[in-house]
């Protein structure tokens, strides 16, 4: 086998393996280097297995409310080990699927860590190591860095795998904690808080910002806060968590807010305070690749400052989402192949949170649109006025739209409630296709569906909502 390839991808996460598959479709000879699991963190220890956990928790919650649907079942219970086993099984199945796709596409895979090792003429050299020993050295004129990221560690709040969990430990618990502290209220923290609360844990959330879900529209954030408190969670915002004092099987700390100090003792802590890019030991020294706060700087086509070196996914710029990484993989490879892909438009990338209730959004929030100088028209429609949501027993939620009052451009859309992560794509298509209020008003939505709230929220922005 020749050691010369058209493209080498370092990292087998969503962006990496999608880039490799697309490059193969375009006729390139591709090598993919992955040191752990094909599919990366997302498939093995993130997106997919957490959704399996959340699904189990959702079903268990529904079993506890069967009487509301005219049904009954005696003493619903759960088996934590079986829930975790199912989650791991789903991840394993998807991982095997990725490996099959790569084999089918004739992508050459290497088991090990990839590192830039200088140049050989026009090609970049990539050294591959396993257990500290070099196992191969390959070359390619183009190298994509898709090494992902890991959980951020803060002084005094470091994870230890036993009492203080990161995401990996949180999704493979051997026992269910009775009391749980979640530090951080982004998507990861909120999803774990939702999962453990549905299984009966006493959940406390501590967030340093002045509200939870800081990347979401403030109105949606406030509604989520109320919904989580209604479920029995305790939420502290503007919170500073003191050093963690570990006992034999519990953790004590102090949470300080503007309202005062709260002493808290819990069985386990989940630390979900952001990520840092995996930029170490990539051989970036001596290259023109620039790193800013642990993330590699790129242009709109994922090119770094070093010719022939690209970066995609969580190791590059935000938003740090699997679907953004996959799309970057496609446009990066198409640009390399000489095609003319559209550059990445970050504001057209949807964000989804799979807690109960779900949250989904795309584009600008109302406050950000105003801050950028737009004169806006805002429409809101509650799920309580939607027949399908009421029939499903899911009347709590809202769809919100933000339009440019002068042009009719859809600046942003924000949703909270049942299945909104499945519906947000409608607004994403509208933004990608540069549709305006007029096209959205003329679109016929099927009845009865919760998606009808999407059109009603558009009509509401122009005082034309029919069912409120």
From TrEMBL:
<keyword id="KW-0560">Oxidoreductase</keyword>
<dbReference type="InterPro" id="IPR012999">
    <property type="entry name" value="Pyr_OxRdtase_I_AS"/>
</dbReference>
<dbReference type="InterPro" id="IPR050151">
    <property type="entry name" value="Class-I_Pyr_Nuc-Dis_Oxidored"/>
</dbReference>
<keyword id="KW-0285">Flavoprotein</keyword>
<protein>
    <recommendedName>
        <fullName>Dihydrolipoyl dehydrogenase</fullName>
        <ecNumber>1.8.1.4</ecNumber>
    </recommendedName>
</protein>
<dbReference type="Pfam" id="PF02852">
    <property type="entry name" value="Pyr_redox_dim"/>
</dbReference>
<dbReference type="InterPro" id="IPR001100">
    <property type="entry name" value="Pyr_nuc-diS_OxRdtase"/>
</dbReference>
<feature type="domain" description="Pyridine nucleotide-disulphide oxidoreductase dimerisation">
    <location>
        <begin position="349"/>
        <end position="457"/>
    </location>
</feature>
<dbReference type="InterPro" id="IPR006258">
    <property type="entry name" value="Lipoamide_DH"/>
</dbReference>
<keyword id="KW-0676">Redox-active center</keyword>
<keyword id="KW-0274">FAD</keyword>
<dbReference type="InterPro" id="IPR036188">
    <property type="entry name" value="FAD/NAD-bd_sf"/>
</dbReference>
<dbReference type="InterPro" id="IPR023753">
    <property type="entry name" value="FAD/NAD-binding_dom"/>
</dbReference>
<keyword id="KW-0520">NAD</keyword>
<keyword id="KW-0963">Cytoplasm</keyword>
<comment type="similarity">
    <text>Belongs to the class-I pyridine nucleotide-disulfide oxidoreductase family.</text>
</comment>
<dbReference type="InterPro" id="IPR016156">
    <property type="entry name" value="FAD/NAD-linked_Rdtase_dimer_sf"/>
</dbReference>
<dbReference type="Pfam" id="PF07992">
    <property type="entry name" value="Pyr_redox_2"/>
</dbReference>
<keyword id="KW-1015">Disulfide bond</keyword>
<dbReference type="InterPro" id="IPR004099">
    <property type="entry name" value="Pyr_nucl-diS_OxRdtase_dimer"/>
</dbReference>
<feature type="domain" description="FAD/NAD(P)-binding">
    <location>
        <begin position="5"/>
        <end position="329"/>
    </location>
</feature>
């Amino acid at each position: 086998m020749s050691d010369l390839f058209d493209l080498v991808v370092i990292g087998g996460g969503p962006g990496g393996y999608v880039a490799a598959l697309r490059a193969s479709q375009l006729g390139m000879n591709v090598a993919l280097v992955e040191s752990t699991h094909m599919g990366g963190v997302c498939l093995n220890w993130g997106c997919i297995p957490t959704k399996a956990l959340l699904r189990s928790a959702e079903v268990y919650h529904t079993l506890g409310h069967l009487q509301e649907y005219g049904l009954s079942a005696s003493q619903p219970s759960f088996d934590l080990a079986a829930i975790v086993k199912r989650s791991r099984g789903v991840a394993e199945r998807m991982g095997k699927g990725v490996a099959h796709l790569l084999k089918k596409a004739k992508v050459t895979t290497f088991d090990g860590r990839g590192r830039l090792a200088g140049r050989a003429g026009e090609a970049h050299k990539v050294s591959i190591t396993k257990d500290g020993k070099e196992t191969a050295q390959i070359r390619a004129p183009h190298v994509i860095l898709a090494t992902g990221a890991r959980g951020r560690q803060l002084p005094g709040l470091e994870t230890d795998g036993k009492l203080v969990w990161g995401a990996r430990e949180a999704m493979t618990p051997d026992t269910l904690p009775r009391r749980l502290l979640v530090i951080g209220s982004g998507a990861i923290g909120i999803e774990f808080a939702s999962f453990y609360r549905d299984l009966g844990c006493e959940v406390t959330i501590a967030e340093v910002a002045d509200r939870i879900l800081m990347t979401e529209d403030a109105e949606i954030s406030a509604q989520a806060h109320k919904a989580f408190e209604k479920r029995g969670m305790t939420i502290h915002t503007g919170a500073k968590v003191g050093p963690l004092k570990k006992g034999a099987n519990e953790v004590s700390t102090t949470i300080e807010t503007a309202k005062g100090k709260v002493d808290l003792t819990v069985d386990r802590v989940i630390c979900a305070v952001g990520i840092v890019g995996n930029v170490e030991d990539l051989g970036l020294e001596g290259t023109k690749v620039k790193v800013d706060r642990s993330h590699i700087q790129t242009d709109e086509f994922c090119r770094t400052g070093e010719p022939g070196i690209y970066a995609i996914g969580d190791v590059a710029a935000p938003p740090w989402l699997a679907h953004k990484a996959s799309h970057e993989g496609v446009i990066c490879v198409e640009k390399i192949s000489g095609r003319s892909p559209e550059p990445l438009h970050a504001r057209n990338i949807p964000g989804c949170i799979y807690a109960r209730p779900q949250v989904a959004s795309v584009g600008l929030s109302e406050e950000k649109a105003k801050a950028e100088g737009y004169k806006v028209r805002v429409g809101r429609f509650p799920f309580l006025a939607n027949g399908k949501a009421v029939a499903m027993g899911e009347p709590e939620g809202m769809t919100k739209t933000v339009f440019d009052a002068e042009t009719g451009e859809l600046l942003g859309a924000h949703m909270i409630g049942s299945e909104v992560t499945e519906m947000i794509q409608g607004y994403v298509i509208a933004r990608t296709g540069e549709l305006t209020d007029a096209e959205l008003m003329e679109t016929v939505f099927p009845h009865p569906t919760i998606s009808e709230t999407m059109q009603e929220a558009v009509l509401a922005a122009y005082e034309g909502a029919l069912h409120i």
